[in-house]
Fold this sequence. Notes:
Layout: H1 4-14, E1 33-35, E2 40-42, H2 44-51, E3 59-61, H3 69-77, H4 80-87, H5 104-116, H6 129-132, E4 135-143, E5 150-158, E6 163-167, E7 177-180, E8 185-188, H7 190-193, E9 199-205, E10 208-215, H8 219-240, H9 246-253, E11 259-265, E12 275-282, E13 287-291, E14 301-304, E15 313-316, E16 330-334, E17 339-343, H10 347-362, H11 367-380
Antiparallel strand pairs: 1-2, 1-3, 4-5, 4-10, 5-6, 6-7, 8-9, 9-10, 11-12, 11-17, 12-13, 13-14, 15-16, 16-17
Amino acid sequence: MASPERNKKMLLDMVKQPSNDHCADCGAPEPDWASYKLGVFVCVNCSGTHRDLPAISRIKSIRLDFWDDSLVEFMKTRGNAAANAFYEKCVPPFYYRPQEKDCVVLKDQWIRAKYERREFTGENNSFQQGYSSGLYEGILWKKGKDNKQFLKRRFLLSETDFTLRYFTKEDSKKPKAVISMKDLNAVFQPEKIGHPHGLQISYLEEERTRNLFVYHDNSQEIVSCFNAIRATRFAYLKKVDPNARDSDLVPLITRSSIKEGYMEKTGPTQWEPFKKRWFILNLTDRKLSYFKTSLDALELGAVFIGTEGHGYSVREGQPKGSRSSRWRFVVTLETPDRQFVFLCDQEQDQREWIEAFKLVISQPMLPQHYNTEANMRRMKK
């Protein structure tokens, strides 16, 4: 006869082991759930997708549910390390492995790819062809440049010339835009775009950031598109630096901002009226870009963020001699060229922006950052 307390203790001991103390799928710490068909420990968020795959996975709480002796013994013979060694055996280096804070569609499709489609076991590579063949073509819904309407557009991604093209008509041979992989970035932005599969594609156009906001109703299709972009970017980076290790190139494939949100910005004399702008701060290129709204296609301007040794600093509060004592939640950013003053709506926003700026300033500048700084200064002249 099963002993509930003994079995619970055994499960709690198992989940403390180094290979089991993080979710098998997203890496979240201290997982409280387990799949007794797969033999893995998972977090509460990933357990939801496992529940949607009853033929593949069956979920129980390791603290609240009753466990038979046979199920506990099965878990003892499996565990996260053994399961991932099998289900993640052939994950391509460019394929994005979602983390705890990533959006639902990324984690959902990762779990389905691992266990349901078995894309990475080496048994069947047909699914990987959709994003690793060097060519991707598909229809996405794209937000119009000057309105909120999303329209169908054909996208063509090619590893041959390292470009992403999109066409206004499905049968058109002349692309609306040809985007180089050199500066292309893609990141999921479901909340900003207002769709659970919303993807933001950014690139440089005459040294200014331009955004495309797209989505696809099919979650597998949009994640395949995302990983096809990553595959092509990875191939481009390897061509540029063929001697680089994969582990050094993977973090450069796509990048997420460390902080986004609205602040108010004034001009260089600080007598200009404050205007509300959407700001995006990236650590990879050390740029603070700003747009009129969160869904604007074209960047209004950008500020390079260097190190303290190069004359950059940030502090709370307004600059000395400022014209108003009524400014609240002020962030003052010092650069060698000028002083920037930003107003935040809330004190928490102020703290988060200051922490984000300090993080960028604390990181050493790399050779490419000096080129970025020089190009941005040249653009302003």
